[in-house]
Each structure stands twice: as C-alpha cells, then as structure tokens.
C-alpha cells in the first residue's frame, strides 16, 4: 500500500470512529495552540479496524498534545484538560491533555532522567515510544494534517517497533505486553 492509500485509510479510520470522529468534528472548540490528536487512540483505532474489533476497544484515553511555550504552568494545562473533558462529557474515554512545551519540567521526576525542552509538538511526537504511535493528526482545509516522523508503514502493517530516542526498554516492554494481549495480530519488534 502506498503512502497516499495509507493516509486515506488512516483518515477514514479516525473520522469514522465514534470516539475520534466527534473530536475532529469539534476541533475548533478545542482551541489550543499547535494541538494534535496523537498516539494510542490514533494507532489503536487503526488496530481495531484491522482486527475487526469495535472502534473503541482497548482505548484507555485520548491524548491531545499542544505546544504553548508562553504558559508553562501546570495550572494552565489542568485548566485546558478540564475544559476539554467537559466539552466531550459524553465520551466513553477521558482526555489526557499535555503541553509538550512543559514536559521537560516533570519528566525526570516521573521517569528518572531529564530531557531537553521540546521545540514543537512535532518534535515531541518524534520521541513517542514506538514508531507506530508516533503519529499526530488534526483537521485541515485539505483533509488531515498528519505528523508521522517515521511514516505510516509500521502503523498500517501492525508493527510495533521501539523508538529508542527517549524511552527505556522497561517502558517499551510494559506497553507492548498490554498491547499484545489486546491486539494479537500485532508484530512486536524486540528492544
């Protein structure tokens, strides 16, 4: 499948999803700078389609990342998270809203090692734990604006490959153990 067909398949999967379609339809109300729908919810929607599973199967949250270097406060991030969760109050899944401009402020306390500040949402997406989940989307005039620093092959071919840019083997293994139990057609590349 060529890149154009992969993009069409991805766009169709997310816009047809009863979980993600309404998010994309209400994108203007999200109103955050450089915001993208990212990671697990996007990849798992594609995996559910490939497995003939219900579209919301196994999706534990919906990740939205944005980039606002002008306000690095935790309070602003929490306020945006509450607002967006209230906006989609009827959704079966909660939203995890993160300002990628402030991740370096808490990363070491959570994961045990420091990271440099990101320069954009796209730079953050390029460090996501796997190549298949390093995808960010948002509606645009021409259809969908997609950030996929590793391309679409792994996502569409159900291949989970570590992106060793930032994560540890333990983080990777914990993620793939859960995913393999839920999506048995995944091909997992070892660390």
Automatic annotation (TrEMBL):
Pfam families: NTP_transf_6 (PF06042). InterPro entries: NTP_transf_6. It comes from the Bacteria. This is Nucleotidyltransferase family protein.
């Amino acid at each position: 499948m060529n890149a154009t067909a992969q993009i069409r398949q991805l766009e169709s999967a997310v816009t047809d999803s009863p979980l993600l379609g309404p998010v994309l339809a209400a994108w203007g109300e999200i109103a955050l700078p450089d915001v993208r729908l990212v990671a697990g919810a996007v990849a798992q929607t594609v995996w559910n389609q490939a497995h003939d599973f219900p579209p919301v199967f196994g999706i534990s949250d919906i990740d939205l990342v944005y980039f606002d270097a002008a306000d690095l406060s935790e309070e602003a991030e929490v306020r945006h998270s509450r607002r967006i969760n209230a906006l989609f109050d009827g959704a079966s899944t909660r939203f995890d809203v993160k300002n990628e401009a402030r991740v370096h402020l808490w990363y070491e306390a959570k994961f045990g090692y420091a990271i440099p500040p990101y320069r954009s949402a796209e730079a953050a997406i390029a460090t996501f734990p796997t190549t298949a989940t390093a995808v960010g989307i948002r509606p645009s005039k021409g259809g969908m604006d997609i950030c996929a620093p590793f391309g679409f092959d792994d996502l569409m071919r159900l291949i989970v490959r570590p992106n060793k840019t930032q994560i540890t083997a333990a983080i990777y293994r914990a993620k793939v153990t859960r995913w393999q139990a839920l999506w048995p057609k995944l091909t997992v590349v070892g660390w």
